[in-house]
Amino acid sequence: MDSVYGDVPMSRVKMNAKHEYEFIANFKILQNVFRAHKVDKPIPVEKLVKCKMQDNLEFMQWCKRYWDTNYGGQGYDPVARRKGAPADPPATIAPLAPSSSRSGSSLNVGGARPRGRTPVGGRAGSTQPNEVQNLQTQLREMSGHLEGLEKERDFYFSKLRDIEIIVGQQLETLEAEGKDDPLLRDVQKILYSTEEGFEVPEPGTVDEEETF
Predict the structure, then answer these.
(1) Which of 4, 116, 128, 180 is deepest in the core (most CB within 10 A)?
(2) pLDDT tens digit string along 56-74?
(3) Are 18 and 89 in contact (CB under 8 A)?
(4) Could you list the residue ranges forming a coiled coil in this record (predicted)?
(5) 194 vs 168: CA distance, rounded Å
(6) What is the full DSSP assignment across 153-182?
């Protein structure tokens, strides 16, 4: 879509999205672009964020047909548009491995003493393997803790998303009947409230309305 219209807010697109809430944020941006250019195509967000191949394949096939029909052949630099942000998931960091070269450097042919100062309580480099092992253990513990926090975050986000959908549907039903529910309005207000430091999109931009 950005190669066709050139006005997608690429700085807000999460290139390495891995979680459902990040997928939803990206689809909000896409739907706002559709709305701005009057593209009459519903985006099945609830299905697409589940990452099932059939649903995503059908949507991508539609996107390809749309691009073939509307792309004017003008030059387009995707790397510059996303300001060099990587489009592929970042490679995982390899675990630290103890180096034998440094520990072996303290040994000299003929039994001569190594040059330089020797730390109190032992020979130079004798504690390095233990330090590396401790760091690896801490890294594994932190990775496990982070994974647990991410799962917990996604769990509660999913619950809030379900509440948002139910409240919205109920309010739409009441509005169709000419009624209202102050309690549901308060719940919706809490769901849509922002914290200090959160940047609200300025009126008139493509992201003016971020609703499905």
Answers:
(1) 4
(2) 899 999 999 999 999 988 8
(3) yes
(4) none
(5) 18
(6) HHHHHHHHHHHHHHHHHHHHHHHHTT---H
What are the two backbone dihedrals, phi and then psi, of residue 121, each rounded to the nearest 5 degrees?
A: 95, 5
The pLDDT assigned to 109 comes to: 42
Dist. CA 163–CA 142, nearest whole Å: 32
pLDDT at 143: 84
- 131-192 adopts what CATH topology? 1.20.5
Q: Which one, of 158, 192, 4, 174, lies nearest residue 81 by Cα?
A: 4
- Can you count the helices (H) and strands (E) in the chain? 8, 0
Q: How many CB atoms lie within 10 A of CB 48?
A: 19
> Is 0.70 topped by the overall pTM?
no
Tokens at 149, concatenated: 């926090």
- Three state DSSP letters for 66-104: HHHHHCCCCCCCHHHHCCCCCCCCCCCCCCCCCCHHHHH
Q: Provide Rg for the chain, Cα atoms.
A: 27
What residue spans define the domains of the chain? 1-82, 131-192
Query: Which CATH code fits 1-82?
Result: 1.10.418.10
